[in-house]
Amino acid sequence: MQSTEEHIKTEPKVTRRHKPRGANPFLSTLGIAVLLATLFTAWTPNSIFTSNLREQLRTLLTPQSAAQSGLTPQPQVRIGIVAGHMGNDSGAACLDENGEATITEVDVNLSIAKLVQRSLTERGFQVDLLNEFDTRLNGYRAAALVSIHNDSCEYINDEATGFKVAASLETRDVNRAQRLTACLTDRYQRMTGLYFHANSITSDMTQYHAFSEIDPNTITAIIETGFLYLDQELLTKRADLVAEGVTQGILCFVNNESVLPTPAVLPTILP
User: Which CATH superfamily is domain 78-254 in?
Assistant: First the structure.
């Protein structure tokens, strides 16, 4: 029988490495490195020497809410959308040969308003869908309030096509109010290709009732997205495009995007 010393000299030591079935040594090494980096990044020097190592590791690997992790959630930006005439009357109506309404302004307004609400909500905004005479309008506070309407369903003349945008004449912040109307005008026109019918903006728009009901610091505008006669196909069959034009105008305002000012035009009424 050989001594231990002789055995070591005569038989070279062989190290056998067994690769676990299905394991990737590179990924395993990488995973350990990432975990260690995470631990050393998350812990303060004093926490490295704590005896409760297992509990700290469990906390790091368990998903936590913003409140549990000490993070302060950011408040959502509030936007108000009024569906014109909703909860009050039908607004303009398109009548058939029997005098029955086939299309009503309130339905078109609501369809567009809901699409705007959904689009802005998906982008992270808090959006209130409001009636024409909504009790929530009293002192309403938001980054912006936009009321959606449409114009006549009767044939006036060949010029009665396009959209209109107006802000309150009594707003406290004229610059921001002009910026909201400029954003809505620019983005809506780009999206829909409709003509900005500035010369048909009336006092009913500039003195819209909600302007005097909301909080004076809320910037507001009213938009008539088209004429229900000549623009009917766009307003009813491409409501998604119409709504996106309104949405982009609101985003332009709240994100402070670049836009040219809307030229001021005195209100006039179509013949």
Answer: Zn-dependent exopeptidases (3.40.630.40)
